[in-house]
């Protein structure tokens, strides 16, 4: 990203002298603003060719709605012009720039034994899902906004990436057929975070602070749970996965069910959604990342993913 873009965005939200530290993001577009006066916050640069302003407004509105209802959310920051979204133009490119308070605390450091915190994580997701239910009595602004449906993303609407291979494509079509047949009633389907893994919240003084709601959409609640499990399992070695996923699942679901109800039928579908997340992740990388730009370890990891997907191998053996 051009330095001129970074400078314009930082100057809209910051003050005085500063530096920007790259934190990451799929497009390498998330930075920490570090001011010489001690001011620190998170700033994101969104390419207008990929992101619509309306979707950003929905994201910020949903975050504010959750915060109003008691969840700890990294709050939005307004610019010097009192705007939540700034536009930066450089040459022929336009970027939307948004900023957030830096979530206090740090990532959950112990996924393998801090099951009390994993239960709180599940409880937070359960609260989100309860608020994300859309029923006949939902009259608030947030429930009148046109959040995207689960299959509105380019990965579903655009051509399947040839790089993924035909055998993966066969599995993709099979999973999509199953997903399209699932009911979308208010107790199973609603507004979800859609990426609430362990790197999208911090733990501070025993409480969880959630952030990064850029993928919020309508989806099945069971899929959102599956995302948390899928990414947590990737942090443990193969020989410990079975034991870990069982304890993680019990703790997470225990917290979740304290805030939101989910029927046994949908809970039993969670392993299916875990495997779909694995498939989705591989297809996403195949479509949006240049194979030649990956390091060797990433390529080897993806090749192993592909082999498991083609053979129909489940990510984990989760007995429910």
From TrEMBL:
UniProt cross-references to PANTHER family, sorted A to Z: AMINOGLYCOSIDE PHOSPHOTRANSFERASE DOMAIN-CONTAINING PROTEIN, AMINOGLYCOSIDE PHOSPHOTRANSFERASE DOMAIN-CONTAINING PROTEIN-RELATED
The organism of origin for this protein: Paenibacillus glucanolyticus
Family that this chain belongs to: Belongs to the pseudomonas-type ThrB family.
InterPro entries in UniProt: Aminoglycoside_PTrfase (IPR002575), Kinase-like_dom_sf (IPR011009), Prot_kinase_dom (IPR000719), Pseudomonas-type_ThrB (IPR050249)
Domain Protein kinase residues, every copy: 7-320
Molecular-function annotations in GO: ATP binding; homoserine kinase activity; protein kinase activity
GO biological process assignments: threonine biosynthetic process
The UniProt record lists the keyword Protein transport: no
Protein name per its UniProtKB record: Aminoglycoside phosphotransferase
Keywords of the record: Transferase
PROSITE patterns for the chain: PROTEIN_KINASE_DOM
Domain of life: Bacteria
Keyword tRNA processing belongs to the record: no
